[in-house]
Amino acid sequence: MLKNGWKEFFYILLCEKDSNTMKKINIHLLVWLGLIALKFISLIENNSFMVSITVAGFIYMCYALVFYSASKIHQQFYENKRFLLYGLFLFVVLIFGTVLVRVIGRVSDFFIEGTYTFGIGNYAFFRVFFFMLFGVLYQLLLEHKKAEEKNKNLELEKRETELQFLKSQMNPHFFFNTLNNIYGLAYQKNDMTPKAILKLSEAMRYVIYETKSDQVSLMKELQFINNYIELERLRLVHKENLIYQNEVNWFGGKIAPLVLLPFVENCFKHSNIDEDEDSEINISIWIEDGVLHLSCGNTMSGKANYKEGGVGTSNVMKRLELLYGDKYSLHNESTSNSYFVLLKLPLEL
User: Quick one: DSSP state of residue 213?
Assistant: First the structure.
């Protein structure tokens, strides 16, 4: 297994060319070259260039061998809970590295001038131990980073799965209500039934083909809302009591798809505008400081038909939290005879 680990290491070092790997290799090379340079500077004052660079190079090549050996041993054995072999191989690396450093120190004594050898062979055991420890800590850091990336990817996958699930629940909810409205028009043999079917067709095309991504064009989303409101208006007896103001004249932004619909939908669902000419629905959409504002509500006289909850509202609030976090603002009020909501969404450019 250790042999395979080193094969993998040299394959990455010599063959793998992706940007992250090359960046990592470059950083490692810079660190080791920096350490060699520091040792070289300490030797060059009393020795020749060749002697100084050779001794500095060999000593830190030894430390690098200890560092990467400890790192690969930790990866191959500790992660697989083979603790006996893990400890044994680390001990071998420690002894082998210590002997190698002392040999380099003794050999360098013949070439370095003066009686002071700059401690190349001194305290070899402790020096090797620290480089071995750094190798283990480095591998632990890599594992921690890899685990964080894995958890992040899992969270993103979970988030995407939940978003798709919520959208799959919302779409049938919208179509169910709209088909009920069209059925009412057809049952009454209303001449507006063909127009309603055309509006529904446009809405279906948008939902099926345009809402697969997290962000859609603001223009398309507002056109969808316009179509929905027109569908609802077709069936109303007191059409004058539906007040809709769309003051958006800039469509360069993007917005999460289908997040406005449930709040608009609730105005019609919770209203008795068909039964009472004194009831009304007010819907306004405008942009202020790069933030889309949706204000909608309804009033009712007589017996209330407000029902708490609803598939659309609960789903869209979950979607808002997943997509916008704490960047959106939602204020709603509901009483026995009124419903009101103010939604503020930042527009993505």
Answer: S
- State pLDDT tens for residues 1-15: 445 554 555 554 445
| Residue that has been written with the tokens 């060999």 in this structure | 58
C-alpha neighbours within 13 Å on the C-beta side of residue 308: 2
Cβ partners under 8 Å of residue 202, min gap 6 = 227
Element (H, E) at 207: helix 193-209
- Dist CA 165 CA 148 (whole Å): 25
Distance in angstroms (rounded) separating the CA atoms of residues 298 and 20:
56
The two tokens of residue 230 are: 């027109």
What are the residues facing 53 on neighbouring strands? none
Q: Please give the Cα distance from 288 to 286 (Å, whole number).
A: 7
Domain boundaries, the chain: 2-122, 153-346
Fold for domain 153-346? Answer: Heat Shock Protein 90 (3.30.565)
d(CA 201, CA 185): 16
Q: How far apart are CA 30 and CA 44, in angstroms?
A: 20
Provide the phi-psi class of 347: left if phi over 0, else alpha when psi is between -120 and 50, else beta.
Answer: beta
- Cβ atoms of residues 49 and 40 within 8 Å: no
* Contact yes or no for 318/167 (Cβ under 8 A): no
Q: How far is CA 321 from CA 34, 159, 316, in A?
A: 48, 11, 9
Distance CA 196, CA 203 (A): 10
Question: What tens digit of pLDDT does each residue of 25-76 get?
Answer: 778 888 888 888 888 887 777 777 887 788 788 888 888 888 888 888 888 8
Residues 6+ apart with CB under 8 A from 40: 52, 53, 56
What is the pTM (predicted TM-score) of this model? 0.55
Place of tokens 């008795």: 272
By the 10 Å C-beta count (0-12 exposed, 13-18 middle, 19+ buried), 41 is classed as exposed
d(CA 17, CA 31): 20
Distance separating alpha carbons of residues 250 and 234, to the nearest angstrom:
28
Residue type, 126: F
